[in-house]
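Handover notes (outgoing to incoming on-call)

Open items:
1. GLPGLI family protein: sequence verified, structure written out, both below. Nothing else pending on this one.
2. Nothing else urgent.
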Amino acid sequence: MVWKRNTNGRNKYYKKFINMKLYLYIFSLLLSSFTFAQSKTTAIVEYKQVNNGYFRSHYYCTLFIEGTTTIFLPKYNTTYVTEGEKINNEPKEIYPDWEYLKIDHGKQQICFFGAFSTNFFLIKDDYNKLNWIISEEVKTIGGYQCTKATTNFRGVDWIVWFAPEIALPYGPWKLHGLPGLILEASAGKGSPKWIVEKIEYKNGDIFDKDFKMLVDTKNKEAIPLKEFLEKNKEWSDNVTAKMKQERPDSTIYTAPIRGDYEEKYEWEE
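GLPGLI family protein structure tokens:
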């Protein structure tokens, strides 16, 4: 007589065990995918802005990137140094709400805050396509090989260095549109230069804030930049006229209403 081992029962439970492991594996994949979808990873790029003019100064700005949206913010305090003097104190990581510059590159929307007199305004700007000229010149910044590119935006000549291996087409301020993250940027001779200090990726909640509620503004819906500049000029002209009326013999100089890096707007061409 030949004895045969009855393996039907064992195979039955073995199959159940395999199926259970398979279900658990699939469930864990779905759970991890759901968790990843719920979490938001923010790229945080910190720049040092160096001013080598008459008053040398260093201060820091941060670019937050999440998806196709960026927020650019300078840090609150500025560290001033004189020639040959070392920086002994680190700037505090305090970001003033009125300095927010938010760009939705997907929707091509730019929003920020501006002020004149005692009023703040919510402003929207045109999303300009920057015509970059990419050179063959390269150099290493922060361990990344970077390529030089130039453009003219609103009357200002820009020189930037971007890292193709960091596939984020963004940079400080309103600079964007290159095949890689901008690690260094300068606008002409003597102007401040942005140089990357560090890059990190982590979960953040800065994009969860209601942008319109950050600052108590005079307007609830954003007004075009051109309209804001016209309102600003009208207010400035009225103040100047009043001062001339009160002090007719005095010389009053009125500075043009411009952005920090904008000399000529497209509607002025």
